[in-house]
């Protein structure tokens, strides 16, 4: 049975979107990932689509409000904002909450998006694998 994960950030236009795309592409046989924001930007940054595509991951993306998922149970809820954890959205629903902050990729241009993509691919996938084994 697949586990469910939610990646949260403020705008749901970059980091949480990349986490959703990477998890579904890399470990989608074990995890179903969705993403949302506390104050969605209303768009997905085009670089959030371009950069995963460079490593073979297709993602259309849609900025979603965290309210869409209220009442749904998740096995793990990961906040993706690198600013102080208290500035990231709070998830009041079911699911173990973990903060895995990533810097804002927009400040580093396309290379910034690539660095964050690679960090998400490593850290979030590892976190979910640990959760699956009961270590997180």
Give a description of the structure.
With 136 residues, this protein is of the alpha/beta class. It has three helices and four strands, in the order E-H-E-H-E-E-H. Strands 2-1-3-4 form a four-stranded parallel sheet, covered by helices on one side. Strand 1 (3-9), helix 1 and strand 2 form a beta-alpha-beta unit. Helix 1 packs across helix 3. It is globular and about 35 Å long. The two termini are 18 Å apart.
Per-chain topology:
Layout: E1 3-9, H1 15-27, E2 31-37, H2 46-53, E3 76-81, E4 96-102, H3 109-132
Parallel strand pairs: 1-2, 1-3, 3-4
Helix pairs in contact: 1-3, 2-3
Give short descriptive properties of this protein.
single chain; 136 residues; alpha/beta; Rossmann fold; four-stranded parallel sheet
At CATH level 2, the architecture is 3-Layer(aba) Sandwich
Low-confidence stretches: none
Calculate the terminal CA-CA distance, rounded to whole Å: 18 Å
- Helix-and-strand structural type: alpha/beta
Output the CATH topology.
Rossmann fold
The sequence of SSEs as H and E is EHEHEEH
């Amino acid at each position: 049975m697949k586990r469910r994960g939610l990646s949260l950030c403020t705008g749901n236009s970059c980091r949480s979107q990349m986490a959703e795309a990477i998890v579904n592409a890399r470990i989608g046989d074990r995890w179903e990932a969705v993403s949302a924001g506390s104050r969605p930007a209303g768009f997905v940054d085009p670089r959030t689509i371009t950069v995963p595509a460079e490593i073979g991951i297709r993602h259309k993306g849609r900025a979603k409000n965290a309210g869409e998922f209220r009442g749904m149970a998740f096995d793990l809820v990961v906040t993706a904002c690198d600013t102080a954890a208290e500035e990231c959205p709070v998830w009041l629903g079911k699911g173990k909450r973990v903060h895995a902050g990533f810097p804002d990729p927009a400040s580093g241009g396309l290379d910034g998006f690539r660095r964050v993509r690679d960090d998400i691919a490593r850290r979030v996938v590892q976190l979910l694998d640990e959760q699956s084994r009961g270590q997180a």
